[in-house]
Amino acid sequence: MDTFETELRQILGESGVLAPRDFHQRAAGIWRQSESLSGIALARPRNTQETAACLALCYQRDIPVVTQGGLTGLVRGADTLSNGLVLSMERMSTIEQIDPEQRVVTAQAGVTLQQLQDTVAQQGLMFPLDLGARGTATLGGNASTNAGGNRVLKYGMMRDMVLGVEAVLADGTIINALNPLIKNNAGYDVKQLFLGSEGTLGVITRLTLRLREAAQSRQMSLVAVKAFDDVKRLLRHMDRGLGGQLSAFELLWGDFYQLVTTLPAQNSPPLPHGHPFYVLLESHGTSHAMEHERFSAALEGALVDDIIDDAVIAQSERECATFWSIRDDVAQVFNDGDALLFDVSLPITAMQSYVETVKRRLADTACMQCWTFGHVGDGNLHFAVQVPRGRAEELRESVERCVYQPLRDIKGSVSAEHGIGLEKKFWLPISRSKEELALMVMLKRALDPKNLLNPGKVIDVAGAEA
Ligand SMILES: Cc1cc2nc3c(=O)[nH]c(=O)nc-3n(C[C@H](O)[C@H](O)[C@H](O)COP(=O)(O)OP(=O)(O)OC[C@H]3O[C@@H](n4cnc5c(N)ncnc54)[C@H](O)[C@@H]3O)c2cc1C
Which pTM value belongs to this model? Predict the structure, then answer.
């Protein structure tokens, strides 16, 4: 055993360190089971002090560190390095305090999103962030990717729910910015440095998060729409009709709906196949009777105004869960080939022609199928581009070019919510100006002068001008 591993064991105890032979068989990601982790050791700190001591040791030894949460990230942001330490948050999974009066929770970074959602629900409260990977994704991962998900329309992204963070810098310095206040304009808002920076500026160890009163009533409907113009009309119609209670507006193109409601997918279709578009609508409100009436009236209005062609309303919480499981069953795209996943953002006014352009461009590649769906109420589109099994890496660049290049002229973003990681680094200049990129390099150099925290992810500092 080398001296680094010995010193690490002194900090974390025997169970806190895994040697390469004990973690190399771990999968590199939830959808990357055939790839495994590498690194000189895997550290499993239990608290902030242990994390800080690990980082200080790595700083002394010039050892790079890759922090890992639930490994559900989709842009290779947590890919390991053969000469680096893997810092896993798996033992930092305590919800420390819930303050129901202040409606604030303090939790360690390794708590899963679902663990938090379920725990605060027992007190009649809600943590509104929600995404398909809720059972595995961690709060630290959600914060460092500034995750979005299903309810951004009403509650915002993770950034909007984080009141404070505690983070450890590359040299082991602990920054306690665990602010519990909703309003705090006392100088720079330091926590923002760690939100969305994908583990490149610090390791998030604890968070204070804003909670909401649990919605007393949830209404959901799946509707069929014949034209994209009607999708845009529907968004405005429902938002107006529900007086700000619309919490989700998820669009599924007809072929994606067919995929996720046909065997081997487990759900059957609540509405018949064959419509060009399907929209999943959700509202959060206070009284079931009142909300049901308002929701039904808004939908009826949409039918009368010829905005929608058909609709089915969920009759129970169970049906609501089924509707969400249809939307979330993205794994079906891997059934008959490999798939490249995209997460872009653009004005809804440019969406239809952008999708047509991308599909036209993809027709000249070896791609087999392009499914489209997304959080369209937030201007966020996902593409799942199916390619022949085993050819994803060979075809990646040509497919990415089809998807990303048209974003430049319409001022779109190459990442709506998944982040940049390794996967989108090359395309970052499409969405950020030269000056913004230079400022990112400057920040990275200031906070991590030895380039040890998740090096190579998001932005390259080696050789970059600042
Ligand atoms: C089925 C599925 C559905 C998804 N749906 C959505 C969605 O709707 N919206 C959305 O935004 N995303 C979605 N995602 C991706 C999303 O980014 C992740 O689910 C989640 O936010 C990452 O959390 P994680 O704990 O798995 O982080 P990981 O994958 O482990 O890490 C992600 C990044 O965060 C860094 N990191 C992790 N923990 C810390 C920490 N404590 N401190 C500093 N850096 C850290 C890592 O180094 C890496 O760069 C989905 C993923 C899947 C698989």
Answer: 0.94
**108 class by beta-carbon count within 10 Å (0-12 exposed, 13-18 middle, 19+ buried):** buried
Task: Supply the residue whose CA is at minimum distance from atom 23 of ligand 1.
Answer: 141
Atom of ligand 1 nearest to the CA of 418: 17
pLDDT in tens, the chain (466 residues): 579 999 999 999 999 999 999 999 999 998 888 899 999 999 999 999 999 999 999 999 999 999 999 999 999 999 999 999 999 999 999 999 999 999 999 999 999 999 999 999 999 999 999 998 999 999 999 999 999 998 999 999 999 999 999 999 999 999 999 999 999 999 999 999 999 999 999 999 999 999 999 998 999 999 999 999 999 999 999 999 998 899 999 999 999 999 999 999 999 999 999 999 999 999 998 888 889 999 999 999 999 999 999 999 999 999 999 999 999 999 999 999 999 999 999 999 999 999 999 999 999 998 999 999 999 999 999 999 999 999 999 999 999 999 999 999 999 999 999 999 999 999 999 999 999 999 999 999 999 999 999 999 999 997 666 5
| b/e 172-198 (16+ beta carbons within 10 angstroms → b) | bebbebbbbeeeeeeeeeebebbbbbb
Q: Distance between CA atoms of 112 and 114, rounded to whole angstroms?
A: 5
Q: Are 81 and 95 in contact (CB under 8 A)?
A: no
With a Cβ cut-off of 6 Å, ligand 1 is lined by: 30, 66-74, 77-78, 89, 109, 131-133, 137-138, 140-142, 144-145, 147-149, 198-199, 203-204, 330, 417-418, 421, 454, 457
Q: 273 C-alpha vs ligand 1 centroid, how far in Å?
A: 32
Give all strands (DSSP E) within 309-434, no chain letters. Answer: 310-313, 338-345, 369-374, 380-387
End-to-end CA distance of the chain: 40
Q: How many CB atoms lie within 10 A of CB 153?
A: 20
Chain centre distance of CA 49:
28
**How far does residue 70's CA lie from ligand 1's centre (Å)?**
7
Question: Which single residue is written with the structure tokens 């995404």?
Answer: 131
Say whether 85 sits in a helix, a strand or coil: strand
- Bridge partner residues of 353 (DSSP): none
